[in-house]
Amino acid sequence: MTTAPRADPEFQRSSILYEFLRGKSEFKTYLSFCEVMGEDTMEYREFDYWFTRFSNGNFGLVDEENAVRSIRYFMDLPVEIIGRIVDFVTWKDVVSLRQVCHDLRSLILNMQFSYKDASIMIEKTSTTVTIGEHS
Amino acid sequence: MTSPASSSEVKYLIESSEGNTFDVSGAALRQSNTFNAMFLNIGADGPIPFTDYNEATLKKVFEYCEHSVNEENYSGPKHQDDLSKWDLNFFNEMDQKMFIDVINASNFLDIERLTSYCCERIARMLRGKNTQEMIKVITLPTAEELEAKQKVEEKKAAAAKKVAEKAAETAEKTETLEELPVQQLVQTTRNKLTRKYLSFSNE
């Protein structure tokens, strides 16, 4: 495959359509798309726009709405909403989320989590830490 | 076209940011605590302006409200697996941009059920992903985008400052104009009283 078709937006969209028709989940499809087409070929927000569009039965490949260009950022959501989203994820996800960006890190640092249960099991050759869901 | 009566037959006109209006039933609108606090008891003359949100977003929000009119009262978040087929389709139809718009509108309108489901839905998008994958899912602005955004905000602030200054200027002018007749009135009354006093003293 030469680089030219990869840079062609319609070719990219038809690749998304092909992957969509295979019925894989959206994020998995995105990862395999990036693997073949290159990491920086398309941002997830644009991919998501096309994937959702195909899910809604619109299989046109022309960007007539120009909707991808008006961007909404996750971090523009009100702080209380981001807090509620964080409440719904597991503690492992919270650890990953803290490293996403500085704003998210300081927001999470200011949140208080209480966990329903936690246990530490120390054995001869290993230690297991189990943390339950936070409430 | 509104009425303070809380009959489910009542239709309210909603105005979007594009200036377009559309009908929403009273029963659907009453799921919004913001609406209940602002308009339910007093009614509204003409369309209700929710002009911070576009038509597509508002229609999506009220589509959800119309659908959940007959559902039992909201009692905490429902697990995503317990959502009905209609609910799942409703969420699957939205791309990330629309999702964020709907959450913002739902949060402003204080529709607890919708806001909560949207938050859980986003949390599901993040669950089980590592930081790099989360960065992909969460749209983070690039340095250029941040700069452009800052410029837009600065422009907006400057425009708001100008409007505020103009308003203050107009208020000052109005104050002077309002003061003038009062001063004239006081002066006229004073003159009249003086004349009366003089005529009494002459008698």
Instruction: Provide the β-strand percentage band of chain A.
Output: 5-15%
The CATH topology name of the largest domain in chain B reads: Potassium Channel Kv1.1, Chain A
Count of domain modules of chain B: 2
Q: What's the helix count of chain B?
A: 8
Estimate the mean pLDDT confidence of chain A.
83
Number of helices of chain A: 7
Major β-sheet strand ordering of chain A: 1-2
Order of helices and strands of chain B: EEHHEHHHHHH
Rounded mean pLDDT of chain B is 79
User: Would you list the SSEs of chain A in sequence order as H and E?
Assistant: HHHHHHHEE
Task: Give the overall shape of chain B, derived from the CA principal axes.
Answer: elongated
Total E-strand runs of chain B? 3
Give your account of this protein's structure.
The complex is a heterodimer of chains A (135) and B (203). Chain A is mainly alpha-helical and 135 residues long. Chain A has two domains: 5-70; 75-131, no CATH class. Chain A contains seven helices and two strands; from the N terminus they run αααααααββ. The model of chain A has no long low-confidence stretch (mean pLDDT 83). Chain B has eight helices and three strands, in the order ββααβαααααα. In chain B, strands 2-1-3 form a three-stranded mixed beta sheet. Classes of the chains: A mainly alpha (135), B mainly alpha (203). Chain A binds chain B through residues 27, 30-31, 43-45, 48-49, 51-53, 55-56, 67, 70-78, 80-81, 84-90, 93, 96-97, 99-101, 104, and chain B through 77, 92-98, 100-101, 103-104, 107, 115-116, 119-120, 122-131, 133-141, 145.
Give a brief description.
Chain A: It comes from Caenorhabditis remanei (Caenorhabditis vulgaris). With 135 residues, chain A is mainly alpha-helical. In chain A, 50% of the residues lie in helices and 7% in strands.
